[in-house]
Structures are given as C-alpha cells and as structure tokens.
Amino acid sequence: MVKQKNKSNKPKVAVQSITGCAGCQLEIYYIEDVLLELLDAVELVAAPMIKEKNYDGPVDICFVEGSVSHTDSINKVKKWRENSKILVALGACAGEGGVQQQKNFMDKKKVQAYVYGNKTKHLDVETPVPITEYVEVDYYIKGCPADKEEIVWFVKQALLGKVPKQYEKPVCHECKLREKYCLLEQGQDCYGPITFGNCSVMCPDYNHPCTGCRGPFSDGNFEEHIKLLQEKGFSKRLIMQRINKYGGLRTQKIMQEAKDGKNHP
Ligand code: SF4
After folding, report:
1. pLDDT for 198-240, tens place per residue?
2. Which residues of the chain form beta strands (DSSP E)?
3. Angle at CA 137, nearest 5°, toward 92 and 2?
C-alpha cells in the first residue's frame, strides 16, 4: 500500500468534495493540530476548498466528502477512483448518502419546489446516493461529520502500508464497555443498537440518544428495534424519519434482505 517516502517526496493526498455541507473537510482544516499533523507526513496536493492550485493526477489517498446528487458528480467520483490508490468515503454523505438522501423517501418534485421555488431549470439533479453506487471504496470514515482523530489515524495506518479493517460493532457495544446507563431503558429513542459504533459514544456520553450518524449497522435487527420504540410510545413516522435520516437507502436494503432471509444463513 502507501509507503512512507522521504520528505521531498511525501505520499500525495487529495481531499475532494461533492454534495455535502463541507463539515467533514472542516474537521481537517479548522483543527490546526490535525492539519499540521497531516502535513508533516503527507503532501496535500488537492484540497479545492483551501487551495487555489489543485493537482488532478494520481494520488496515494483520496478522501471524498459528499454524495452523488448532481450529474457531473458521477464523472468526478469515477475519475478520483481511477486516480487513487486508496479511496476513502469521508463521512455519512459519501458512505451512506447523508441527510440529503432523505429526499429518496419524499416527493422529489415537492422537495425541489420547497427548496428552490420555481428556479429549478438550471439544476441538473440526480437522486442523492452514496459514492459507492458508482465506485468501489477502500475505507469508510463514518459519521456526520467524520471524526478528525479517525482521519489522522487512518492516514497513519495507510503510511504503515495498511488499510485497516472496518469497525464492525454497534454503538451499544462501546456503551456497555464504558458502563453507561442505557438511554433506551430511560425511555429515550436511542438508535445505538442499529448504528455502527466506534464514535467513543460521544452523544450517549452527554445523555443524548444516538441519532444514527455512523450509518445502519449491517447486522442490526431493525424490525425489532422499531417494535421496541413503538412499545415505548414513539410513532412509526418519527422512528422511520430518524432511521432514514443518514442512511435510509442502505437501511431499507438491510431490512429487505432480513425479510428475504439473506443476511442470516
Ligand atoms: Fe456535512 Fe455530515 Fe455530509 Fe460531512 S457527512 S459533509 S458533516 S452533512
């Protein structure tokens, strides 16, 4: 994989962006320590948000933030894939479709008219989907926004020649290890059991229930969780809004596969 090179020839890193709020990139740029730590080890050759001149050739690692929501984004992500040894989906938008993919569960014309009024003729819009609909991804840095420490950790791993294994446990696992009192048991609508963890339980730590920003846990029992929340008095409408908020497309797929008996042999 990516080898540590001498100072004059550091590994090339790009931070690219399509539709998103730019919050994931800001995790890198706004935290001076993160940026300096990265710049010490790699050459940031493309970062259009902060650099005027951006290299568009081959790179060692390319972080992509945002979902494919416009026609021209399709060619962009394909080109970034071709040009990158390691392509990383940075944040919930790139990996799950993010908040904008909620549009998939609404009347798209109404949503568009609500946001843009009648000034929509210039828009060349696609249904918002994660970049994985168009390209293969080597690693996901999950979350909304992606976690700065995980970004630095990932770069260090890549410099050592590794693409780490994806974390495969739900938020609840870490909550239990830290002996946190369960928010579900306190009657809150927490989505920890059906959400990928490795977030240091930063929301439950402040007594805020998990809202699912790290995406649907692939082995989560969604049907049972929905039933449990309904028994606790939450409406199905609210539950589905929450479930669909960051990664509804993949959640629906997981639920369908469970119904078809595909994910549990
Ligand atoms: Fe913004 Fe969240 Fe999307 Fe990152 S994942 S670009 S923080 S909306």
Report:
1. 999 999 999 999 999 999 999 999 999 999 999 999 999 999 9
2. 12-17, 43-46, 59-65, 68-70, 84-90, 125-129, 139-141
3. 115
DSSP state, residue 102: G
CA separation for the pair 4, 148 (Å, rounded): 21
- Ligand 1 near 90 CB (within 6 A): no
Contact predicate 222/254, CB 8 Å: yes
Domains and CATH numbers, the chain: 7-159 (3.40.50.700), 171-259 (no CATH)
Question: In sequence order, which residues have a C-beta less than 8 Å from that of residue 186 and are 6 or more positions away?
Answer: none
pLDDT tens digits, 36-47: 888 888 999 999
Whether 23 lines ligand 1, by a CB cut-off of 6 Å, is yes
Characterise 187 by phi-psi region: left (phi > 0), alpha (psi -120 to 50), beta (else).
left
Instruction: Give the orientation angle of helix 236-259 with respect to helix 222-231, to 10 degrees.
Output: 150
In one-letter notation, the amino acid at residue 110 is K
Phi, psi of 130 (to 5 degrees): -65, 160
Q: What is the structure's pLDDT at 26?
A: 93
pLDDT at 116: 83
Task: Determine whether the shortest distance from the Cβ of 91 to ligand 1 is under 6 A.
Answer: yes
Cα–Cα nearest to 34, from 60, 59, 15: 15
Q: What is the pLDDT of residue 56?
A: 92
What parts of the chain have a pLDDT lower than 50?
4, 6-7, 265
Atom of ligand 1 nearest to the CA of 99: 8
Peptide bond into 145 cis (omega under 30): yes
Question: Of the candidates 251, 204, 261, which has an alpha carbon nearest to the alpha carbon of residue 95?
Answer: 251
